[in-house]
Amino acid sequence: MDAKESPRIVLCVGGGIAAYKSIEVLRRLVDSGYHVVPVLSAAARRFVGELTFSALGSEPAKIDLFDDTDPIPHTHLGRSADLVVVAPATADLISKIAHGSADDLVSATLLATRAPIVVAPAMHDEMWSNPAVRRNISMLRNDGIFVVDPSEGRLAGGDHGNGRMAEPWVIASYARSILSPRRVDLRSRRILVTAGGTREAIDPVRFVGNSSSGKQGFALASVAAAWGAEVELVSTVDGLAGFPGISVTKVVSASEMHEATLDLVSEMDIVLMAAAVADFRPSQSATEKFKREGRSEWHVDLVANDDILADLVRRRRDGSVVVGFAAETSDLVEHAQEKLQRKQLDMIVANDVSVEGAGFDGDTNVVVIVTADGSRADLPKLEKSTVAEYVLEKAYSLLPSR
Ligand SMILES: Cc1cc2nc3c(=O)[nH]c(=O)nc-3n(C[C@H](O)[C@H](O)[C@H](O)COP(=O)(O)O)c2cc1C
After folding, report:
1. Which of 189, 211, 295, 388 gets the highest tally of CB atoms within 10 A of its CB?
2. Which amino acids are annotated catalytic?
3. Spatial distance between the Cα atoms of 269 and 346, rounded to a whole number of angstroms
4. Whose CA is nearest to atom 4 of ligand 1?
């Protein structure tokens, strides 16, 4: 990203133990090419030194509303921001934002901005579940502020509970998705995403599988969650457990994925079938490990799996959008269009897995998006998260307006 054109993020740091993790948030945002200005509350400076933030930030850390060098720092900070991230957001800061207080640089900046705000709360579970904090959090959500819910885990003082700040990579991923020019409003939308390659057991230790890493599905799920959707992720690989807004169902085989997705599909607005599902499975799965015992050949018979997409299309809700994915090695668009029509999909995302920078495992993809109404978009090599943004933006445009 060119320094001049870099989106500007104001990173507000509240006074909690998790303030040390904010340094990692800062580093990740700067490494992603954003211009990041740290702003520390007086309490935050009791936990972490402003020098570290100044050294790692794009500008020296700001700490004072009554600053000799800038007579009105809060309006300058607020107006120039493309995004404001609050991490950690203390119970006190959340209350200030909810009620419009402006008695220090952090709260005044938050009041003076028109940029989207991402808040990552961090506090003990007693505070997080306190009715006053719950009320304030609802007010923030109603005001359109993005809340990155904390997770359950280790808290300060050796305690355990719900209130641990989301991991820095999660907060950075939210920030990136919210800054995207392709962002659409997915609040109150339910989205089903499948990810990973299925494994079809031959015996207890062997399987028929494929090389799908689940990365494209994970990117779809995490961008959708950051844009406000309630995401159901049915996945064969671990990776997004604990990501706010995503409920994960772990499966292994195509038949498990079939069952899990059919249970959910009738409640979904958008279905994104990014998993690589095996078309065939061994006709029998041995309960004991197959032994070589001097054999020179071993034949495994395969039978066709149920067609998950066909069944999802049959059970879909009226007005929902069903998106298929096609990994091809030749005649990409022809195959994709044929699959789109045969399976009665609304949209298909096709990638030629033989092309450099596309397909399994890598962090980039090269896809063509084809819709049932005849539109076609050939995207260049992009990060999988950017591909996810294009896919979600297009799928959203196919939903009936409310
Ligand atoms: C050791 C210690 C740890 C604290 N941790 C938290 C915390 O994790 N979350 C929180 O909401 N408040 C925490 N507090 C209380 C805040 O520091 C206090 O409410 C402060 O006024 C917050 O100021 P600020 O919101 O302007 O940063 C902690 C206080 C102390 C002394």
Report:
1. 388
2. 210
3. 12
4. 16
